[in-house]
Amino acid sequence: MDPPMNFNGLRRKRYDEDPFVTFSIPDRKLTFDRLFEANSLDEFKASMASKAKLGPGARFDLIHLRDGDEVTVEDDQDFKAFAASTRYYHHSRVRVQITSGPANFTSAVPASVGGSVTAAEDDHAQDHGPPAKKRRIQGPKPSTDLSATSAAPLPSTDVPAPEKPKPKRKP
């Protein structure tokens, strides 16, 4: 697949620029772009983890989405193939699958920039698990005992839907 051409047969301007990678983290509903400047897999992972604000012990897989296939980038050889593809097409898509470890957001301001961290702030930064889910308040549940029901027919709850207004014709 060659880079797209414009009507004059020339490459689009963006293909003269640096290649970039679009990261998608479905667990967090987060998507972002980064210029592809990494020279190693470790450097690439560190760049992505800092932008995504993953905790220091977070473990994740990088899955390169290419031509409808999912290719896991696990080692240096995988990274070299990924880098070649990214430089050729000037863009790649990577899905980040968090596998284990503290996947919570870390502080956006490092202690060296914002001053010292107090014990209370340090305790607050720890992972306390996922937030509690809100429960839907429901009315009393009907009894499942069939002997307590009467033989009287139940009232119909079917209500016809209102008709949609017909569109007006333009003269």
Give a structural overview.
It is built from four helices and five strands. The protein has helices spanning 41-52, 76-89, 111-114, 119-124; strands spanning 20-25, 30-35, 59-66, 69-73, 91-100. The chain has a five-stranded mixed β-sheet with strand order 2-1-5-3-4, with helices on one face. The longest helix is centred in the middle third of the chain and has 14 residues, at 76-89. The radius of gyration is 27 Å and the shape is elongated. The model is unreliable at 103-127 (pLDDT under 50).
What's the main sheet like? 5 strands, mixed
Please give the share of residues in helix.
10-25%
Categorize the overall geometry.
elongated
User: Which spans of ≥5 residues are poorly predicted at pLDDT below 50?
Assistant: 103-127
Mean pLDDT: 73
| Cα-based radius of gyration, to the nearest Å | 27 Å
Number of helices: 4
Main attributes?
five-stranded mixed sheet, elongated, alpha+beta, about 170 residues, 5 strands
Task: Give the secondary structure arrangement, pairings included.
Blueprint: E1 20-25, E2 30-35, H1 41-52, E3 59-66, E4 69-73, H2 76-89, E5 91-100, H3 111-114, H4 119-124
Parallel strand pairs: 1-5
Antiparallel strand pairs: 1-2, 3-4, 3-5
Summarize the structure.
By secondary structure, the protein is an alpha+beta fold. Helices cover 21% and strands 20% of the residues. The chain has a five-stranded mixed β-sheet, covered by helices on one side.
